[in-house]
């Protein structure tokens, strides 16, 4: 999906001094690496951790037991959640997938970040995991970053810096255990750069993170994707899509502004849409244009979702069907 990268409010040049709370290689550092190159210069061991992930076989994850997290979404789960076996996300080209895990409780939060709402998402993820880890005195918070590559516009580099600064500025210690991003996640075959891993899953019981793709990405994808190509009060937010207390997938409520020229967009060729609605058109997956067209059609049909999709301002809830293992609508 199109990634909107927020401008950083500080000059990012290798290493920036801030109040450190991220632990690097087991040591509470006093400097914040805001690029993968600076991170590797100080801690080359992160190259080996990334290489282990890249060497792992990618898994195609079916829908049963899956909690899929889309762009500008986050979710948090615990190992004893009977509704979720794997939490994951994919299609991250210039985006970065962020995982926070508490080693004692096994609580996991995952987000798919594109530059919008980064600081708020980082704080929310840590808060969710801390809440779910209550009662487990032992354990540490672990941070894993996967995705992004050395794209022509350096979107991923800016996003990596923004994510690192967002976590460094929190008031808790977080151990960075994996940073398979940017240059560590870039293939240079054929003369053009491309991301090596664009999706990951987390086995919430084992705690393992692995490369993954997800053919089924859950319900109401056009609605969920509409926020990323429109403007409005909720478009830049990273929304929590899972209610831990009752084990329900939660969508909305949110609103967006009508997309000017949506009819004209739908008349354009696939190549035109690819070139103009992606920050990285050369490396998008084959289904990118189809998904964009479906999303544009949804926006065309629902220019005011607060009126037609969420008329009562209530979330759409989905429960896990015991027989199929898939998400089905809750009937109230």
UniProtKB/TrEMBL annotation:
InterPro entries: NTAN1. GO terms for molecular function: protein-N-terminal asparagine amidohydrolase activity. Keywords: Signal. One of its GO terms (biological process) is ubiquitin-dependent protein catabolic process. Residues 1-20 form the signal peptide. It comes from the Eukaryota. The keyword Acetylation does not apply. GO terms for cellular component: nucleus. This is Protein N-terminal asparagine amidohydrolase. It comes from Spodoptera littoralis (Egyptian cotton leafworm).
């Amino acid at each position: 999906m199109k990634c909107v990268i927020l401008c950083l409010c500080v000059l990012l040049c290798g290493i920036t001094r801030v109040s450190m709370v991220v632990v690097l290689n087991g040591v509470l550092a006093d400097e914040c690496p805001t690029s993968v190159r600076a991170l590797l210069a100080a801690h080359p061991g992160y190259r080996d951790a990334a290489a282990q992930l890249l060497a792992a076989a990618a898994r195609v994850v079916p829908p049963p037991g899956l909690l899929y997290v889309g762009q500008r979404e986050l979710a948090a789960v615990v190992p004893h959640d009977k509704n979720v076996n794997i939490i994951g996300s994919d299609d991250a080209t210039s985006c970065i997938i962020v995982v926070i895990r508490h080693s004692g409780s096994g609580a996991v939060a995952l987000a798919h970040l594109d530059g919008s709402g980064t600081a708020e998402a980082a704080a929310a993820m840590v808060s969710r995991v801390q809440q779910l880890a209550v009662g487990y005195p032992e354990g540490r918070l672990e941070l894993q970053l996967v995705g992004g590559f050395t794209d022509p516009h350096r979107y991923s580099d800016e996003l990596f810096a923004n994510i690192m600064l967002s976590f460094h500025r929190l008031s808790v210690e977080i151990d960075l255990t994996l940073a398979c991003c940017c240059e560590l996640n870039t293939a240079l075959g054929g003369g053009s750069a491309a991301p090596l891993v664009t999706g990951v899953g987390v086995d919430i019981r084992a705690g393992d993170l692995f490369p993954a793709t997800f053919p089924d990405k859950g319900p109401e994808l056009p609605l969920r994707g509409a926020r990323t190509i429109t403007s409005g009060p909720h478009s830049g937010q990273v929304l929590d899509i899972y209610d831990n207390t009752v084990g329900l997938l939660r969508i909305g409520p949110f609103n967006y502004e009508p997309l000017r020229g949506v009819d004209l967009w739908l008349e354009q060729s696939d190549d035109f849409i690819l070139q103009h609605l992606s920050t990285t058109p050369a490396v998008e997956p084959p289904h990118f244009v189809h998904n964009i067209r479906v999303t544009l059609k949804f926006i065309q049909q629902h220019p005011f979702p607060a009126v037609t999709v969420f008329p009562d301002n209530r979330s759409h809830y989905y429960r896990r069907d015991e027989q199929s293992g898939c998400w089905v609508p809750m009937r109230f």
